[in-house]
């Protein structure tokens, strides 16, 4: 495996046969085939997802056989030479929600605010962490995939989100406590946390809770690719921008940022443009200091025999649903090989652009927003701008710690 300081490159694992419904009749041979294909691209890790209803069908019942399946998948990945991050509470995957019945209908509980529902999730994370902690190829445990997708059916405030995340992160760490030092406890959110005004999951929560900051810079967020074009600087530098935006909200200037989901969904990124997009996304993101790594979405296309997915979900894989590597897979593998052969050595971004927004105006920092477009304009002019919150724009010790010598766009300046 890579050393602790090397950039990590991996993929979010979407089973080729049956998508995540494959957990209903888990087949180790099929999983092994998929993992061998992934390893064959030269990638070093995967992110995996079990389904919450299968793991915890009752609030006080966690199915040992389902946990054992997950452990077996982690072991299979290890045999293929792949490290693994496990997401615990799914939750939400590719436009589908997976709630256990004890959270719904007659038994509805708000998963973010109901004390017993929170404790049930915490116990699930403790059990998963304990079961997985001894695996040598485990990266860590993430609370779940883009938990903020669930606010649609579970109204919550930012303060309640903070308490929820703190409780579940503590449970994940407790579960992992018997493992080796350095196992990560993390959480993730889709782009609304960074771009949507008054969204209850905040940039501060993403950048300050958990052991690394995870970002999911999708080209369809705020209609980025359609707004600017699939080969535009705004699209090709989107992951890089996501990393720099995340660093601005962190209190720890040395905190790592993980580009945990990015991909080339059609028609936002036409298939002919996907290899170029993949290569440029990796190269541009790799120019960011403090990058943990990049994890592509996803390994395999959703098979078209499965109904009712948004069209883009059928085209996101590096491999098609027959298991054949697509041109984007070869482009990604080649770029990863190049970056391993000549590892990037990012220099401090000495120029920063001040971001002046509140929770109710954070859309200025998303595609179409004034700040986003100003940052991208500087980038196309050859500047490599950092992002600094306006409140820190005159903090000399903070700027020095980040290597910033010039701040543009301070409030009140011309």
From TrEMBL:
This is Glycosyl hydrolase. InterPro entries: GH. Keywords: Hydrolase. SUPFAM superfamilies: (Trans)glycosidases. GO terms for molecular function: hydrolase activity. It comes from the Bacteria.
């Amino acid at each position: 495996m890579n050393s602790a300081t090397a950039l990590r490159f991996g993929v979010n694992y979407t089973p080729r046969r049956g998508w995540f419904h494959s957990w209903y009749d888990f087949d180790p041979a099929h999983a092994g085939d998929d993992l061998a294909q992934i390893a064959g691209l030269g990638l070093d890790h995967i992110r995996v997802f079990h389904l919450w209803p299968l793991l915890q069908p009752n609030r006080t019942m966690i199915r040992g056989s389902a946990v054992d399946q997950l452990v077996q998948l982690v072991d299979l990945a290890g045999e293929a030479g792949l490290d693994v991050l496990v997401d615990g509470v799914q939750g939400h995957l590719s436009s589908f929600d997976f709630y256990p019945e004890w959270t719904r209908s007659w038994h509805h509980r708000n998963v973010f605010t109901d004390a017993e529902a929170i404790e049930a999730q915490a116990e699930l994370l403790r059990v998963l962490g304990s079961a997985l902690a001894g695996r040598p190829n485990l990266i860590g445990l993430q609370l779940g995939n883009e938990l903020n997708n669930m606010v649609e059916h579970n109204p919550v405030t930012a303060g309640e989100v903070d308490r929820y995340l703190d409780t579940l992160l503590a449970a994940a760490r407790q579960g992992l406590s018997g493992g080796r030092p350095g196992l990560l406890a993390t959480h993730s959110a889709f782009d609304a946390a960074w771009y949507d005004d008054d969204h209850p999951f905040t940039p501060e929560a993403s950048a300050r809770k958990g052991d690394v900051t995870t970002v999911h810079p999708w080209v369809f967020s705020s209609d980025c690719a359609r707004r600017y074009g699939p080969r535009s600087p705004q699209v090709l530098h989107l992951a890089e921008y996501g990393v720099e935006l995340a660093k601005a909200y962190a209190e720890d200037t040395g905190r790592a940022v993980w580009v945990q989901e990015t991909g080339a969904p059609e028609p936002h990124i036409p298939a002919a443009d996907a290899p170029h997009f993949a290569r440029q996304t990796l190269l541009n993101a790799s120019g960011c200091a403090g990058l943990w790594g990049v994890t592509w979405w996803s390994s395999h296309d959703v098979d078209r025999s499965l109904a009712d997915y948004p069209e883009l979900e059928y085209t996101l894989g590096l491999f098609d649903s027959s298991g054949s590597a697509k041109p984007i897979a070869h482009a990604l593998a080649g770029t990863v090989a190049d970056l391993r052969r000549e590892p990037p050595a990012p220099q401090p971004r000495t120029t920063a652009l001040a971001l002046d927004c509140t929770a109710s105006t954070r859309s200025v920092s998303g595609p179409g927003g004034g700040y986003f477009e100003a940052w991208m304009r500087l980038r196309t002019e050859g500047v490599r701008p950092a992002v600094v919150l306006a409140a820190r724009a005159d903090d000399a010790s903070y700027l020095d710690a980040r290597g910033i010598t010039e701040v543009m766009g301070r409030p009140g300046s011309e």
